[in-house]
Amino acid sequence: MSQPTRIERNGAVMTIVIDREERRNALNEAVAAGITAALDAAEADRSVRAVVLTGAGDKAFCAGGDLQLQSDGTPFTIDAADPRHYVARLLRRMDACRLPLVARVNGPALAGGLGLLCACDLAVAREDAKIGVTEVKVGIFPMMILPYLLRVVPYRRMMELCLTGELMTAAEAVADNIVNYAVPAAELDSKLDWLLDRITGKSPTGIRLGKQALAKIREMSTDAALEYAQFMLANMSRTKDAREGMLAFNEKRAPNWTAE
Predict the structure, then answer these.
(1) Which residues participate in catalysis according to the annotation?
(2) N or C: which end of the chain has fewer CB within 10 A?
(3) Residue 161 and residue 132 in contact, taking contact as beta carbons nearer than 8 Å
């Protein structure tokens, strides 16, 4: 049986591919487990500087949850007493990732697929890729991904998407900062590489600690966040990368990052 995800490696970049093209790269528990395992592997490898998430082929980035009618007619089974649903586990793991996560949106990002896009730090998309949440059309609401929609999508735009179930293109999503760049399909990978080059050349230690801090600061009060930020900045200043960065700046040369 083929695995629902696969890993590709190109230098300092690890790409996680949702490999279910026949199901439009729909999300299920095995896909979530595969993405989580890949993130664990990426963080364990100090040579990885960025992670890309994409879908196989060109039909979809991720068309959402792989809905299958249950015996009672419902589209899925969720135990209301169990907070460890696989989608929640996956989104928490993406949140905790200390490496830059970049969505390569090679096709529609729908429902849970939009949730994955919003859980990434950056997104480069085909300009014709459809984006949206269609749950209202089948009598439900995009509950599991709402925290991530609220972070990324402007409120009124989010409500329009949720209440109408209508889709937008990635080109339209650029205006709302839902994706960073939307380009013709033929330029998707070159634009992605351009962005990754700008990331992977920077301090890996600074980025890892910065993302770790940001995940905590997001949940804090302003006063607590400022206190924590001061503590983290003091710690960061003692890293080898910080010392190398300042030395290289003063010597007017490119830094030699060691990820330490």
Answers:
(1) 135
(2) N
(3) yes
